[in-house]
Design goal:
The protein has 380 residues and is of the alpha+beta class. The chain is 68% helix and 9% strand. It has helices at residues 15-28, 30-44, 48-66, 73-93, 101-110, 118-134, 136-139, 144-223, 228-253, 261-274, 289-309, 342-351, 372-379; strands at residues 278-283, 314-320, 323-328, 355-361, 364-370. Strand 1 (278-283), helix 11 (289-309) and strand 2 form a beta-alpha-beta unit. The N and C termini lie far apart (82 Å).
Length: 380
């Protein structure tokens, strides 16, 4: 019987999705299983031998549970199935009915990921548990009927029940994986939409200019033989127009084109919400029009950085009269924060009396821009 590795469940693998599922598994699955195993050990083990075999079975079961959402699940689960089968056999022979616990767990983890024939596999597992448990009557010939119920029927039924719960648990994890992947796709689409918007701005700048240049060059060619002075004037206009377009293109490339803060704020909210990120906007006061453009540039660049580099769930944007602060969670704690595209904006803000600060703490990234000089001027 071939049991596929969890890595074949493509919805469970890949970067942040798998990391999140593993954390969820360690919180919601492993501790309850360990708690039940310890209770059985405390209340049912009657000899040191029972303690040993139950501990071995529990360790094998917990190892399987821990690796359930990892790519090497099968590498651990197969040996654990053998170990827990031997533990149950030893428990049945030594009159320990609780030692089937490890086998029931490992088997229930193995059945749901099967791509087909899961019902026959489940039936085979139940038969295996019952047969191993029935060996108890080979060494204890009293109360045969009661022993078969205790060591064969009840453990087999427990395996069936635990596997049904694992089917439900796997479906829950599948839904979590689908939601996480949908969130990642939405974030990628949001970045793509931002790039398309940039391309649209570039087209607005250069498309009209190139069309006018084409017409003026064609006109200058016609005027070369009849009106040289007029042709020179047309070519001079072409040179000036091209120069202006170069300046506008450079401004666009460095996020220096005039921006409307309100429009950028609305666009940022739409992008975050499309990526499944909760956004909260706090306005301490109306923003000074003199700094709105630069604050809009900071907001645009920060929005792109969050969508591309963070695993954010929440973003808080705070607007003051001469400043803006953007705080997001999901930041990786690996070294000092990097400014990336914000480095050019820090220089430009400095030239206009502003300050740009970034900081990271406890998985939160904060980007703040302020113009203290203009704030003092407004207060006079």
């Amino acid at each position: 019987m071939e049991v596929p590795t969890i890595a074949r469940r493509t919805s469970w693998t890949g970067g942040a999705v798998q990391d999140r599922l593993r954390r969820l598994n360690l919180i919601t699955t492993v501790p309850p299983l360990a708690f039940v195993g310890v209770l059985l050990l405390v209340f049912t083990a009657r000899t040191w031998w029972h303690v040993v075999i139950q501990v071995v079975g529990l360790i094998a079961a917990l190892a399987t549970a821990e690796r359930w959402t990892a790519g090497d699940f099968l590498r651990v689960a197969r040996p654990s199935l053998v170990v827990t089968s031997l533990v149950w056999l030893a428990g049945a022979l030594t009159d320990d009915p609780s030692s089937f616990y490890g086998l029931s767990l490992v088997g229930s983890f193995l059945i749901p990921p099967l791509p087909r024939r899961r019902i026959p596999a489940l039936a085979g597992l139940a038969v295996l548990v019952a047969v191993l448990g029935a060996t108890n009557v080979l060494v204890h010939d009293d109360r045969v009927g009661a022993r078969l119920i205790q060591f064969a029927a009840i453990p087999a039924a427990a395996v069936l029940i635990s596997t049904v719960f694992m089917f439900a648990s796997q479906r829950f994890f599948d839904l979590i994986a689908e939601l996480e992947q949908s969130r990642e796709r939405e974030a990628e689409l949001a970045v793509i939409r931002e790039r398309v918007r940039f391309a649209g701005d570039l087209h607005d700048i250069q498309g009209h200019t190139l069309h006018v240049v084409k017409l003026k060059v064609a006109l200058a060619e016609k005027l070369l033989d009849s009106d040289v002075d007029r042709a020179r004037a047309e070519l001079a206009e072409v040179r000036s127009l091209v120069g202006d377009t170069i300046v506008q293109t450079k401004e666009l490339a460095y996020a220096q084109r005039r921006l409307n803060l309100s429009a950028e704020l609305e666009n940022a909210k739409n992008l975050f919400e499309a990526a499944g990120i909760h956004v909260r906007v706090e306005r301490e006061s109306e923003v000074d029009a003199r700094v709105g453009e630069l604050l809009g540039q900071v907001l645009r660049e920060t929005t792109t950085n969050i969508l591309r580099h963070a695993q954010a769930r929440q973003v808080r944007i705070t607007l003051s009269r001469c400043g803006i602060a953007i705080v997001n969670d999901g930041a990786a704690d690996n070294g000092p924060p990097e400014l990336s595209g914000l480095s050019a904006l820090r220089h430009r803000l400095g030239e206009n009396g502003g300050e740009l600060e970034v900081s990271r703490s406890d998985g939160r990234f904060r980007t703040a821009a302020a113009f203290p000089s203009k704030s003092r001027e407004g207060g006079r």
